[in-house]
Structures are given as structure tokens and as C-alpha cells.
């Protein structure tokens, strides 16, 4: 990293809060780069607890449990960025973060292999009815039989959501001799010999195993419900390693109890305990050939290290160079450092005339702009300015007073 890319604000004063036992890889990377003011907590915090902790924090790192609400963001007056060390960002109020000019980053690709592998493993366990045989063996009952046990080879896997995880699962399944069909609301290029289904009903009716890989949005809530469960093949298996709200678990419980479905592997739930050891209840407990896991689809050492590295790099790039590639809130800008200049970041409400006001104010005071970059979204605009070193402090103060300004920060 060049000398010029180091932030002008002392690194040891940049306060960092890591929650939910984020990978030590991330902590080490920050310390190796000179960021020593790090507080790491093993669990998630409630809204009230987080409001107290985040008051003077510049950067917060979370996983899937911590909720960054509007109240939390309002209390975080010094917050520059949020690192979501996981796939999703639905635990962050993105609208409020955008209005506050806080960059939000995540790692959408880092644990795809871990989830895809677990889906394959669960498919083998369930199609062989291993959960039932395992339970019997623990009870001292010998159940050596082939009835109801099958190979994956030659079976049809239906993938709902053909994104990063779904497409990788597709490749793994084909290598085991499975036929793959998929359904996605967007047009996707099939990998290997996979083919797309016309609609969800068609996919459910043809699949021996159905695996869900969709986000948690309004259109996917209870996507698999009492009505859609009727379309499943007799004895089919359902896997949900996506989001907890996607499946109506009570309806699934009935379908399993009545024998319409032959098994299920569920890793995510509408309600999940906050920490290890807490009591957990679901309508699926005690049912035959059901594999329940505690939201561990992406929980491997490799995945956590990859996520720690991916998100940390994005945060470094933003803190030290103003690069916002991968941000869900601040518009994406990627740019090299400029020699002989100081870099200032300006986040503002996306209103007409702001850029003109910036340029007019600096020009009025004889401040030369060496380089300038602008990107906007519906809510905010993000300007990166490289200005004359001798006049950069004056420029910073002038920019603070530009109408519609949300945040201004000098990098170097």
C-alpha cells in the first residue's frame, strides 16, 4: 500500500467494533494495517446495547444476527462504514444507511462453496434416510434395510434461485449424475446440462429434491406454502439453506407427517436463538427423515476466512482510498491515488446543483481541483475530489458548508 493511500486521520484513533465472533483473520488484517483500536465481542447486541456501544465507532463489523436499525444509525454519529461479514445485508436498514452516507459492504461469494457442499451432503443423507437410521442406532435399534433408500444418480434436482449458490450446486449435482432443472425470476445462463423450468409449479412437479436459494424479500415470503406443497412429487425432499421466511414450516410439517414429502433439510428458520445454548423450537422437531441444522450453511473455517478477507479489503479500500466498489448504499467509485494532491470525500443528498456549488465554492477561493469523480443513486451523491495539498484544509471547511452535505472526510 502506498504512503499516500494511508488515511490522514490517525489509524490508532479509528474505533472499530466487531460483533458476533467475526473471523480472527479480519482482526489480524486490520491490526497488520495499523488499526489497533479494535473491540471484538462474541455475540450479537440488542438495539439498546448497540446504541450505547456504537456512539463513537467509525467502523462496525457484523454477521447475520445484529440488526442495524435507523435508531442505531442515528446514534452512530461517527460511523463511516458497516462490514457485513456474511452473504446478505438484510440485517441493515439500507435506506437509513444511505441517507446517513454510511457505506455498507458484504461478501456475496465467499461461502457459496460451503453452502453448496452441505446441500449435496444433506441430499445424500435424506435420500438414504440416514436421519432415521442414525436415530434408531442411537436408541440401540438395528435398522439394516434398503427400502426407501436411493442413489442421487439419475434423480432430478430442482434449484429455486440460480444465483451464486444455486449455480454452483448445479455443477456439483451434475458431477454426481443428477439431472438439474432450475427456476429463477431473472433469465440466467444454464451451466453444464442444466435447463430452466417455465415456472415454479413445473419445477416442483418434476423434482425429486428441491433446493431453495432465494433472498428474503416480500415476494419470497412463504414461497413454499400449503398450496405449493401440493405440487411436489410424492416422496420428494425439500432443502432450505436460504432464508427462514421462505418456507411455511407448519404447512411443511403437515406434508411430512402425512407422507406426501419424503424428507426435509432445514438450516434457516423464521425465528432463531440469539446465542448458542438458547432454547430452540420448531414445528419440524421429532418428524421422521428431517435434518435440522442451526444456520450453519456457510459456517466453515474456509468460508469465514474468505469472508474476513473479502470484507476487510473492501473496508480498507474505502477507509484509505475512498473506493466504494461493492457498496450497497454509497454509489460505486473505483479510482487510483493521485500524486501531489489531498483526497476529500463528499457525500450529499442527490439534489440538482450540488456539484456546481462544490466547484463554484472551491473556484471562488482559488483552490485547484486536480481530479474529480462523481456517482449518484436515487438518494445520495458521492464526490471524490483530489485538491491542491496547500489548500486542502481550507477546501475541507468550505465543503462542509455546501448545501445538502451529509458527510465530508479527508483521506490523505
Question: How is the main sheet built?
Answer: 7 strands, parallel
Number of domains: 3
Tell me the radius of gyration: 25 Å
For the record, what CATH class of the largest domain applies?
Alpha Beta
Please name the fourth-level CATH homologous superfamily of the largest domain.
NAD(P)-binding Rossmann-like Domain
Gross CATH architecture of the largest domain:
3-Layer(aba) Sandwich
Supply the number of helical segments: 13
What is the third-level CATH name, the topology of the largest domain? Answer: Rossmann fold
For the secondary structure, the number of strands is: 16
Share in helix: 25-40%
**Shape by Cα distribution:** elongated
Low-pLDDT parts are 1-5
Distance between the termini: 13 Å
Structural class: alpha/beta
Q: What is the topology, as strand order, of the major beta sheet?
A: 8-7-6-9-10-11-12
Mean pLDDT: 94
Q: How much of the sequence is in beta strands?
A: 15-25%
- The ordered H/E elements are EHEHEHEHEHHEHEEHEHEHEEHEHEEHE
Q: What would the keywords be for this entry?
A:
disordered N terminus, 5-stranded parallel sheet, Rossmann fold, 31% helix, alpha/beta, 19% strand, 7-stranded parallel sheet, Alpha-Beta Plaits, 412 residues
